[in-house]
């Protein structure tokens, strides 16, 4: 019998015991938003998608229901990708004004990535 280790991506399995609830919620949102955003991108949708379209993408990604904050995080993840073509001021603004749990879409060459801010407690 082959044993497969399952990666647990929730804050419960990552953050230390006693981590404040708001940090855990931001962590879980940072994991949830890219999963839903990928489904939206597969359907050709952008940050202006309707709540109904967002709910459909969340259901496909098996991530529902979405809070208003999670909806905003998905919409942030769907904003146009940052790349070397953006000005340093634009990159600085989008990166350093990113809300906790809200992924940032990046383009490096021909590939796109999500920069996913996982909050930590020290």
Taking pLDDT < 50 over at least 5 consecutive residues as the criterion, the unreliable ranges are 1-7
Percent helix, as a range, is 40-55%
Q: What value does the Rg take, in angstroms?
A: 15 Å
Number of β-strand runs: 2
Q: Give the class from helix and strand content and strand pairing.
A: mainly alpha
Chain-averaged pLDDT:
88
The fraction of residues assigned to DSSP E strands is 5-15%
Overall, the morphology is globular
Order of helices and strands: HHHHHEE
- Number of H/I helices: 5
Largest β sheet strand count, sense and barrel closure:
2 strands, antiparallel
Strand order of the largest sheet: 1-2
- Calculate the terminal CA-CA distance, rounded to whole Å: 40 Å
What does this structure look like?
This protein has helices at 11-14, 21-42, 51-60, 68-77, 88-96, and strands at residues 104-108, 111-115. By secondary structure, it is mainly α. The chain is globular. Strand 1 and strand 2 (111-115) form a beta hairpin. The protein is 45% helix and 8% strand. 22% of the residues are buried. A two-stranded antiparallel ribbon has the order 1-2.
């Amino acid at each position: 019998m082959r044993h497969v280790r399952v990666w647990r991506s929730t804050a419960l399995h990552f953050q230390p015991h006693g981590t404040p609830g708001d940090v855990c919620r931001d962590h879980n949102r940072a994991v949830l938003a890219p999963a839903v955003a990928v489904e939206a991108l597969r359907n050709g949708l952008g940050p202006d998608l309707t709540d109904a379209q967002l709910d459909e993408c969340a259901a496909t990604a098996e991530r529902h229901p979405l809070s208003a904050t999670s909806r905003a995080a998905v919409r942030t993840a769907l904003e146009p990708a940052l790349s070397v073509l953006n000005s340093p001021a634009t990159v600085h603004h989008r990166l350093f004004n990113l809300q906790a749990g809200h992924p940032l879409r990046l383009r490096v060459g021909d590939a796109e990535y999500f920069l996913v801010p996982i909050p930590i407690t020290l």
